[in-house]
Amino acid sequence: MDDPIKRALTCRRLQRGRCVEEEPDDTLVCTVKFGIAMTACLSALEIASMAFLHSWNSEVFSAITGLSGIVIGVFVGRKT
After folding, report:
1. pLDDT digits (tens, 9 = 90+) for 38-79
2. Is the overall model pTM greater than 0.85, yes or no?
3. Is residue 13 part of a domain?
4. Were both Cys, which of 9, 12, 16, 58 would link to 24 (CB 3.0–4.6 Å)?
5. What is the model's pLDDT at position 79?
6. Residue 71 maps to a domain
7. How far is CA 22 from CA 2, 9, 63, 69, in A?
8. CB-hemisphere CA count at 13 Å for 37?
9. Residue 80 has what pLDDT?
10. Going by DSSP bridges, is the β-strand pair 18-22/11-15 parallel, antiparallel, or unpaired?
11. Residue 70 domain-assigned?
């Protein structure tokens, strides 16, 4: 089975007229998967907080923003 995160993090560049692919390290792939999973869990926590407590939790939202920024930064940084 082809891993979409590993495929998205694979760097492709032209070198002497042919395409060279550099696959990411397995540690990086696992770290990005963990970051995505934690962002999803925190989002669910924020939704539950809003549904049951009827209040906005800014600390959880800042954690979601930070984690999603890190994951997007890894994708952008890996491609350049």
Report:
1. 999 999 999 998 999 898 889 999 999 999 999 999 988 887
2. no
3. no
4. 9
5. 72
6. yes
7. 16, 9, 31, 23
8. 7
9. 67
10. antiparallel
11. yes
